[in-house]
Design goal:
It comes from Streptomyces spiralis. The protein is an all-beta fold. It folds into 2 domains: 121 residues, Sandwich (Jelly Rolls), CATH 2.60.120; 101 residues, Jelly Rolls. Helices cover 2% and strands 47% of the residues.
């Protein structure tokens, strides 16, 4: 992976790897398997990411977290966290955001969230107590599982609506599964998403890409490393028009 310098506004980016390693150059941070990188690009931020020379297979998830309107101009920030595995009855969890099974992540977000990598042993069923005010998504990376009785296959996302206080994840296969659990309250704000920007109107989402505005880079402790120090070219601004929230597409597990 070799991502040229590019800007973000109005969001947090979440990087979680299963294999490989990424260098986050503007903060000189690395992320490897079982590690979290979370970057806050509220008012504006520029960054670049490259896989390291020793990486042969790069595999993981990249998530965007929309900042609520009250915090959409939040100060830039970068957080790195390595959660310890938590033993479950029938599997393990690595909680990188929020709280699950008595484990609390210290990573700061602007809305209540839960993010965890789960592994369920062959023939086991894991029962998880979750917040009934949250929506719950289970992304399958490896193996076939049943989420509250609904069959999910690799690359499918199971969904449980608010009101669900318990999730059961069953692995009826011969190998352990790898899953990502993503939960949070419904996001009631309408947004406009264009390229790397999140706004509430066409102007606020496309404005940062106008010539002459260069968002600052992430803070690296007591210093700031400028994106202009990275090799050109920068990622070009795409011509695509802004688009609003897409319709949901998932497997319901009620």
């Amino acid at each position: 992976m070799d991502v040229a310098p590019h800007p973000h506004t109005g969001l947090q980016t979440v990087g979680w790897l299963f294999s490989g390693e990424i260098e986050h150059r503007d903060s000189h941070a690395f992320v490897g398997p079982g590690e979290l990188n979370l970057m806050t690009g509220g008012f504006g931020i520029s960054h670049t990411e490259v896989s390291t020379s020793r990486t042969t297979i790069l595999h993981g998830v990249r998530l965007w977290v929309v900042l609520p309107d009250a915090h959409r101009d939040a100060a830039r920030d970068f957080q790195h966290y390595v959660p310890d595995p938590v033993r479950l009855d029938g599997g393990t969890a690595r909680v990188f955001l929020g709280t699950l099974a008595g484990c609390i992540s210290p990573v700061r977000t602007f809305t209540p969230l839960l993010g965890a990598e789960l592994s369920v042993e062959p023939g086991a069923t894991v029962t998880l107590d979750v917040d009934p005010e949250f929506e719950h998504g289970l992304l399958v990376d490896t193996g076939d599982v049943l989420l509250n009785g609904t069959v999910l296959k690799p690359a499918e996302l199971g969904y449980a609506a608010p009101g669900c206080a318990e999730l059961t994840v069953a692995n009826e296969g011969p190998d352990a599964t790898r899953l990502v659990l993503l939960c949070g309250p419904p996001f009631g704000e309408e947004i406009v998403m264009w390229w790397n920007f999140i706004g509430r109107t066409t102007t606020t989402s496309s404005g940062p890409a106008k010539p002459g505005r260069t968002p600052p880079t992430a803070s690296a402790g007591s210093r700031d490393v400028q994106a202009t120090a990275f090799p050109p070219p920068h990622s070009p601004t795409p011509p695509s028009p802004p688009r609003r929230n897409p319709a949901p597409a998932s497997k319901d597990a009620r």
